[in-house]
Amino acid sequence: MRISLVVLLAVVCCAAAHGQRAVLVAGAGQEVLSGATLRAVPPAKKNDPPQLALYAGEQRVSKASIYVGKVYHFAAEGNRYFVNGFADDGESKLTDLKSQITGKPVTVGHRGDNTGSPENTNISYVNAIANHTPIVEMDLRLTKDNVLVLLHDPTVDRTTGGTGKRAIVDMTFAETQKPDAGSWKNAKYKGEPIPAVETIFQTCRGKAIAMLDLKCTGLGKSIAELKSKLNIPADQLILAPWEQEEGVALRQYLPDVPMILLHGKLPTETLDDAYFAKMKQIGFSAFSINWQVLTRDFIDAAHKNGMKIYVWTVNTPVDVAGAALNGADGIITDDAPATMKLISELTAH
Hints:
The protein folds into two domains: 5-98, no CATH class; 106-346, TIM Barrel. It has twelve helices and 17 strands. It has helices at residues 5-11, 95-98, 122-130, 157-160, 173-176, 197-204, 220-230, 244-251, 273-282, 296-304, 317-325, 336-346, and strands at residues 13-15, 20-24, 31-33, 36-41, 51-56, 59-60, 71-77, 80-83, 106-109, 135-142, 148-150, 209-214, 237-240, 260-263, 286-290, 308-312, 330-333. The protein is globular. The two termini are 34 Å apart.
């Protein structure tokens, strides 16, 4: 990704007297505060993108992971350093940061109430709704007998304590109801089953919008039939396929349901109007992109072309504040209550 010096200087907002700067991160070696620079550090996980960290001299002064291409707000007060308003000890300095946030991103509950409940289960969505989460994300798959169910992985093992690597596509719906999908999270959820999507749609009806992460292709007909059966308004669902081609296929069955493109990387390196026009022609109105790889340039280009940006999966205060600072329209998070509280604080002007 190319970041020119002109662009970098254009987004730097300094308040030197208070030791604060908002900076578009360009790479290792960049000085972001007087005496404080960014250095490359090993990624937290094997397949994570390159990461940077804040150093003063030879000492790392913040545990926050920093990624190239985003705007970050840095501040210093004595020997304490703040990234996007937060120091390592949990203390916050949000006043200057708040002045640079112009929008209020909506919070999306990842797999329901993923922090306190077993993911992708009915109780997870019951609890998310009780927490007033406005949008809830869920992972859709199809059983052997063509019943839509919620499950993230191809097999049931991780969330049911199984060891046989049983693929959901090889199980009938009746068979999926036997494993315990709750007690792995907490004993109080023992007996919680893998739910049918129909059950979750009923749970969310009129209370939360359902964002559908489509873990396999070819689900359009089944979703359309269920939508018709339950008489669900189009604006109560968001389709989230991983491929452009699947978006084309979905539009044959669900022409009026909002649709966003999910991607683990930037979906294009060409940020011209023609790309976004093509996406809108297919029927996409937004993107949902891994926060670690997302750039401010992509967000700005999408907004310029009338498209929104959701980011995933954002859980730390530093990253939640960063998503708001960079103009994200929606934040997909495991801890919706904490995210909603922080966003309210950051946008209360």
